[in-house]
Sequence to fold (145 residues):
Amino acid sequence: MKKILIINGPNLNLLGNREIGVYGKESLSDIENECLEKCKLLEINCEFVQNNNEGEIINLIQSVEKNFDGLIINPAAYTHTSVAILDALRSVTKPKIEIHLSNIYTREEYRKKSITSEAVNGLICGFGAYSYILAIEAIKNMIYN
Ligand code: DQA
Fold:
C-alpha cells in the first residue's frame, strides 16, 4: 500500500486552544483522526506527526525519499522564515503539498510570503481542517498519475 507522511510544524499541537477565531475549534488529534479516516477510505497508509523544532522537521522531510510515496506539510510559522526547510523540501522528488488552515494571503504582510511553497507541487490554504482532506485527495491523485 502507498504511504504518505503528514508533517505539522510549530504550535500546531495547540490547535483547539490557540486563536480559535483563526484556526478553529478542532484539536490536532481531531484533525489526525479525520486524516486517518480519509486515508483508510482511499486505501493509503498515513503517518501523522507534529514537531516544534526546525531541525527535527528537516529530519522528517529527509526520511520521505526512502520511506514514503508522498508528503503533506503544514510548516506553520517556518513557512515564512525557513530556507533550511525549503532546501530539505527541494531534495524530495516524491509528490509534496503544502497546506495551511488559514488563508495566509489575507492575513498579516509577513504571512503573505511562503518561502517553503517554492519547493512543493501545490499549495492548499484557507479551508481550515478541510485543507488536510483536500491535500490527501490531491496527493493520492499525484501518486497514481
Ligand atoms: C498556519 C499559518 C502560519 O502563518 C502560522 O504561523 C501557523 C499556522 C496555518 O495553518 O494557517 O502556525 O500554517
Observations:
- The CA atoms of residues 80 and 115 lie 6 Å apart.
- The helical segments are 20-23, 28-41, 54-62, 64-67, 83-90, 130-144.
- The pocket of DQA is lined by residues 11, 74, 76-77, 79, 100-102, 104, 111 (CB under 6 Å).
